[in-house]
Write a structure and sequence with these properties.
The chain is mainly alpha-helical. It has helices at 2-18, 29-38, 43-52, 61-74, 78-103, 108-113, 116-122, 128-146, 152-169, 174-190, 197-222, 236-246, 256-272, 277-300, 307-333, 346-357, 370-388, 397-409, 421-425, 450-454, 467-470, 475-482; strands at residues 359-360, 366-367, 413-417, 441-444, 461-465, 486-491, 494-498. Strand 6 (486-491) and strand 7 (494-498) form a beta hairpin.
């Protein structure tokens, strides 16, 4: 009874943190693509958009359905759209609570509730926190089958439920699902487990769903969905940045855009220079704690492996297999990956770290210690900086669109070198075609070359966001310099130039 009440207290405290995740910050460029789906009036319109989609949203069908349905309940404001993600963060915590109860770790939901990676995506209009929630269900299935005296039948059914749901939420969910299914399958064979009729029926239904999903993904990928070419290739940078996010360092460093831009321009050494001394202490503290945890686990690892240690090692195996497969796929495709593409691994990372951070006893159980509390407190500090720190604000499309609208009202021509979808969410109206006569208008000048720019009406105002993505030719920046435009204002991920 005491353990049960303790678990409920941890659960309530963890869910209370979820209430702080959503915000009314401006939608950034990727969130704008999700908002398009949320703004569709009917399900038929939603399906029509999904059917014609060429971006990565086609590879997140269930995630897009979630945003569309959530908007019908919570509205289409920035806060309303983000509430949906926060709810999925709550689902992940509930599933962690169930997993923790199974292995006697009542505090387990609090550890993921303090994690900066969950906070970032729990306050974002993207489906990655839904991926984390489905993967938390996958983790429960993993633990239920592997844990001595666990719930093998429930674990198998959870695997057959959350596996397809994870894959339907995001195509890359196939990787951890396959790794977990392999480990679980070997364990069931080792136990000489024999399925019953109900188990076989669940297997057939789940397998059929996976086949349909595979056919859907094959169709949209062959149609050209998500050709993800980025400023750097696959390699050490992708691995380091993904580890940086999945281990919860996010809040202690510069914003994600600033960090990536520093890596693109100056490499990893240049990125390190972007860390301010106060927050660098947080990086050092968290790195120190992880080092202590690793050394403790290595030193205390018994010669005869306990069930909890075996669980941690097999979770590490799932992580290693998934990362290796991701690295191979992205190397072939020539596309880098970030922490969000490995969001499904967060539950396995948190479980492994939680096990390693606790103190083993003679009975091979694990007890909470000061190290675990310090880790949770440091992660929560990182999370609060992610949520409230000025360095981690999203791209300010709201203010940029407002400046452009005001300029058009004053009779000025505006060049907009940034994403179009998020601007349209904030009511910015673009020219239907490149105008042949000079008039007040917002012209989308994303990745134009010098010759194209010379054919457009001369602007009085230029807004540029993320040149590495929206001005790959450098033509816009060169135009601003050659025509003596003056930098009048900086917004998050935007620069506003005005003609002299």
């Amino acid at each position: 009874m005491r353990n049960k009440s303790s678990g409920l207290i941890w659960l309530v405290l963890s869910l209370a943190l979820v209430c702080l995740m959503p915000s009314n910050q401006s939608l950034w460029i990727d969130e704008g693509y999700t908002a398009q789906y949320a703004q569709e009036g009917s399900f038929a319109q939603f399906m029509s958009r999904l059917d014609s989609e060429k971006g990565s949203e086609a590879l997140m069908p269930l995630g897009m359905v979630s945003s569309w349905a959530g908007a019908k309940v919570f509205g289409r404001s920035e806060f309303g759209l983000r509430v949906v993600s926060a709810l999925w963060a709550g689902v992940a915590i509930l599933l962690f609570w169930r997993t923790g109860a199974l292995i006697g770790f009542a505090w387990l939901p609090a550890l993921i509730a303090c994690h900066a990676f969950l906070w970032y995506h729990g306050g974002e209009v993207r489906p990655y926190v839904m991926v984390i929630a489905m993967s938390a269900g996958l983790l429960y299935a993993f633990v239920a089958v592997l844990w001595p005296g666990g719930e093998t039948k429930r674990g198998l059914h959870a695997l057959l439920l959350f596996g397809p749901l994870l894959c339907a939420t995001y195509v890359l969910g196939f990787l951890p699902f396959a790794a977990v299914a392999g480990v679980v399958g070997i364990e069931l064979l080792r136990k000489q487990w024999k399925p019953r009729t109900r188990d076989l029926l669940a297997l057939v239904i789940s397998g059929g769903a996976l086949i349909l999903l595979g056919l859907y993904y094959a169709r949209v990928i062959s149609a050209g969905a998500d050709i993800n070419q980025r400023p750097w290739g696959v390699g050490l940078k992708s691995l380091l940045f993904s580890g940086y996010e999945l281990l919860g360092f996010l809040g202690f460093g510069p914003g994600r855009y600033q960090l990536r831009q520093s890596v693109i321009e100056s490499g990893i050494g240049g990125a390190l220079q972007g860390f301010a001394p106060p927050t660098m202490m947080g990086v050092a503290m968290l790195a120190f704690l992880y080092t202590l945890i690793l050394l403790r686990f290595w030193k205390c690892f018994p010669s005869r492996r306990s069930a909890i240690d075996r669980l941690a090692l097999l979770a590490l195996l799932v992580i290693a297999v998934t990362v290796g497969a991701m690295l191979a796929i992205c190397s072939i495709a020539g596309s880098p990956f970030w922490g969000r593409h490995l969001a499904s691994l967060l539950p396995f990372v948190v479980l492994t770290v939680g096990i390693a951070a606790t103190t083993p006893t003679r009975t091979h159980q694990r007890q909470v210690n000061v190290l675990l509390f310090l880790l949770a407190a440091t992660l929560l500090t990182s999370s609060l900086l992610v949520r409230f720190g000025p360095n981690h604000r999203r791209d300010d499309y709201r203010s940029a669109a407002s400046i452009a609208r005001l300029a058009v009202q004053e009779g000025k021509t505006v060049w907009w070198t940034a994403g179009r979808v998020s601007a349209e969410y904030y009511g910015l109206v673009f020219c239907t075609a490149d105008p042949t006569s000079r008039r007040a208008c917002v012209i989308h000048t994303d990745n134009r070359d010098k010759e194209e720019l010379e054919t457009l009406p001369a602007p009085e105002l230029i807004l540029i966001s993320k040149p590495a993505f929206h001005d790959t030719t450098g033509a816009m920046r060169n135009y601003a310099v050659e025509h003596r435009f003056q930098l009048k204002r900086r917004l998050t991920a935007f620069e506003v130039f005005e003609s002299p």
